Amino acid sequence: MALPGHRLLILTDMAQSPRPLVTQLAAAAGGGPFGVVVREKHLPVAERRDLTGHITEALAGSGCEVLVADPRWPVEACHLSVHRPVPTPRPRVVGRSAHAGDPPPGDVDYLTFSPVHASTSKPGYGPATGVVGLAAACRSTLLPVYALGGIETPERAERARHAGAHGVAVMGVIMRAPDPAATVRALRAAVG
User: Which segments constitute the Thiamine phosphate synthase/TenI domain (predicted)?
Assistant: First the structure.
């Protein structure tokens, strides 16, 4: 089993970013290393692969790790939606999305559990489980769990860790940040 090397995962959404996505992520890396899950599933495969390459280049030497959501090409690390099969050949790191009531999968290295709180990025997505639901999810599996959904503040990130989460996964709080490095720095400090 392999894990992303960080307790902070950033999920991309170029529509929320005030700057080009690559620029926003490069700025975020000024706050310290994190894992980044390249989503942008609306793009054609070739464009998404190229975007992933540009992100990888921009983050080279920063200590950040790039994962691809539901990849359509061979990758080193990926994050899968709930029912997507693990790719062949198997990437070094494989994560999966999970929600309240989902049976814990045995074919991956880590999970994101959502939504913990109401999500600004996905309004109406839920219901939110709160930290009580997160704690139950963490106890239900031996896999490391990243809390996702409404983790908009360092305080929420810290509460997620106290509830048993290995780390936190965020989207909008970084994608919309005017100073993404400061936001990354604060979240990294909160999750240890």
Answer: 107-172
- Which of 111, 52, 122 lies closest to 82, judged by CA? 111
The angle, 0 to 180 degrees and rounded to 10, between the axes of the packed helices 180-191 and 21-28 is: 50
- pLDDT averaged per 10 residues in sequence order, the chain, 192 residues: 80 97 99 97 97 98 97 96 93 94 83 91 79 96 95 98 98 97 98 93
The runs of H, that is alpha helices, within 64-147 are 130-139
Alpha-carbon gap, residue 84 to 61, rounded angstroms: 31
CB neighbours of residue 77 within 10 Å: 21
What lies within 8 Å, CB to CB, of 125 at 6+ separation is: 114, 115, 119, 149
d(CA 117, CA 156): 9
- Give Cβ neighbours of residue 191 (< 8 Å, ≥ 6 apart): 7, 8, 157, 158, 160, 161, 167, 168
This prediction has a pTM of 0.94
Domains recognised in the chain with CATH numbers: 8-191 (3.20.20.70)
How far apart CA 25 and CA 33 sit, in angstroms, is 11
